[in-house]
Specification:
This protein is an alpha/beta fold. The strands form 6 sheets. It has a 9-stranded mixed sheet with strand order 8-7-9-10-6-11-12-13-14, with helices on both faces. A 4-stranded mixed sheet has the order 15-16-18-17. A hairpin with a 2-residue loop joins strand 15 and strand 16. Bound molecules: thymidine-5'-diphosphate and magnesium ion. The site of thymidine-5'-diphosphate has 14 residues, from helix 2.
Length: 467
């Protein structure tokens, strides 16, 4: 058998064919096949060779390179930086700061490795202006305003970039897909193409995707299963704080949170976010309580508010912001059945201050306290903190990481804690009195019998973002 002396290898994905073709049969890139001596490494110089089958024992897991983004908060959410060859999707409302954050990341990575920032949204001059204003000048950072994805990838290959940022997926298109940029097929095709590119070249790719209020489905949601990591950029209207939430992460813990503050010199990370959402009015007010949630591996103090109002129209309403409304309805039943507090004739509103969503069940007890406080128009002590899950039988159940939550509350100056019996700390925490309760009735009694002078302590120090 005669062995061919040369093969044609694709510069985008490394696939080989014996014959020249206009389009790579593997990744469908146009004009990407280059002649190569047979037997030569299939991958173009500077790129990771496509991995063949390997035994798991032969993969250490440690050889994967991680690019640090220059923002510890983001690195943590990513599970320790951007993994080479991985694809991350950053979703968020328009104007929340996605481009700003990624430009900062791009400029940081570009201090050591070449980076391509492809913006279909803004012109090079606009992005450049922002980069100058933020002092993000890096020689290795290439900006391009291009909506043809193949052109972007060709440039990425040419510059041998370690990081490619696509801003945004809604503005790029692949020539062979006969649909407009932003159409569902385009979004999917372009993302799939970027994933192939990342895997074959070892380039870390970050894709920006807009989420619109009504069209959440037409945007990044559709792409979540294609990529390795899905990050959402969230904020409360009018707040300068931003949080990045990992909803999916193949290379780290999901549900991590990273905190940022928008300033006039770009996004700054908030390293100690424990109390950034605590900006309570100085007077004690009925319906407000602080709880300690634990999201993303850290305790976070957060204010819950409940408002109970006489029903105005036909059926009582139950509206929850940042909490699961079904669970709120369940807690109303528990309150009525096991504590004799009936809210059947009332509209009930529950709110998490700061625009955060709490996914755990530790807010059961504090919410019930807040609602009772609002109903009776009796403020809870300002220095009271509570957490715990309520069961359908009215029992108060412990939640995970109780001691860690209590320690954070103590650190922030809270004086009284109300928790489930099994959440009592093994060693007393100086300055923090911990009361325990076994049932919802006991918990209500304990909270409202707290000495009123507790209401007069100094509000806890607000921790500000380090800038
Ligand atoms: P941007 O990154 O363009 O948002 P996105 O890409 O998510 O649409 O951020 C836009 C907003 O951020 C804009 O309203 C102005 C504000 N901003 C600042 O407050 N400070 C800054 O340094 C920058 C660059 C933007
Ligand atoms: Mg933008």
């Amino acid at each position: 058998m005669v062995r061919p002396t040369s093969v044609f290898a694709c510069s985008a994905c490394g696939a080989q064919t014996p014959k020249w073709q206009g389009q790579c049969p593997q990744c469908a890139a146009w004009n990407s096949l280059e002649k190569r001596a047979a037997g030569a490494a299939s991958a173009p110089a500077g790129r990771a060779p496509a991995a063949g089958p390997r035994s798991l024992t032969g993969t250490s897991g440690a050889d994967a390179e991680r690019l640090m983004t220059g923002q510890d908060e983001l690195d943590r959410v990513l599970g320790g930086g951007l993994l080479a060859g991985s694809v991350a999707l950053l979703g968020g409302d328009p104007g929340i700061g996605k481009s700003t954050l990624l430009l900062q990341v791009a400029a940081h990575v570009a201090q050591s490795r070449p980076v391509l920032y492809a913006s279909g949204e803004e012109s090079v001059a606009q992005v450049g202006l922002r980069a100058h204003r933020l002092g993000l000048i890096a020689e290795n950072l290439t900006l391009v305003n291009e909506s043809d994805l193949e052109q972007v990838l060709a440039l990425a290959v040419e510059r041998k970039v370690a990081l490619l940022v696509v801003d945004s997926i809604q503005t790029v298109q692949l020539g062979e897909t006969a649909a407009l940029a932003g159409a569902v097929t385009q979004l999917r095709e372009c993302t799939a193409r970027l994933v192939r590119f990342a895997k074959s070249s070892g380039t870390a790719v970050v894709i920006i995707g807009h989420v619109t209020k009504e069209g959440a489905i037409a945007g990044p949601r559709l792409l979540e299963h294609l990529v390795d990591t899905v990050l959402y950029f969230e904020s409360e209207a009018g707040s300068r704080y931003r949080l990045v939430r990992a909803t999916k992460n193949r290379f780290g813990a999901a549900h991590e949170l990273g905190f940022f503050a928008m300033s006039d010199t770009g996004l700054k990370e908030v390293r100690n976010p424990a109390a950034i959402f605590l900006a309570r009015s100085p007077e004690p007010s009925a319906g407000s309580i602080v709880t300690v949630m634990r999201d993303g591996g850290r305790p976070l103090l957060i204010e819950l508010q409940g408002l109970v109002d006489r029903m105005r129209f036909g059926a009582p309403r139950c509206v929850a912001q940042g909490l699961d409304a079904n669970r709120v309805a369940m807690l109303l039943a528990v309150l009525s059945r096991h504590a004799g507090v009936s809210l059947q004739e009332h509209d009930v509103f529950a709110n998490v201050v700061g625009g955060i969503r709490i996914e755990e069940t530790a807010w059961d007890l504090p919410l019930v306290l807040a609602l009772a406080s609002s109903l009776n128009d009796r403020p809870l002590p300002r220095s009271l903190i509570a957490f715990g899950e309520l069961g359908l039988t009215g029992e108060l159940r412990p939640v995970a990481y109780g001691e860690e939550r209590l320690r954070e509350a103590q650190k922030q100056g809270f004086k009284l804690a109300l928790v489930a019996r099994d959440n009592a700390p093994r060693k007393a925490l100086p300055g923090l009195e911990v009361r325990v309760a076994g049932r919802i009735g006991e918990a209500l009694a304990a909270a409202f019998s707290a000495p009123p002078d507790l209401a007069a302590v100094n509000p806890p120090e607000r921790t500000r973002g380090r800038s």
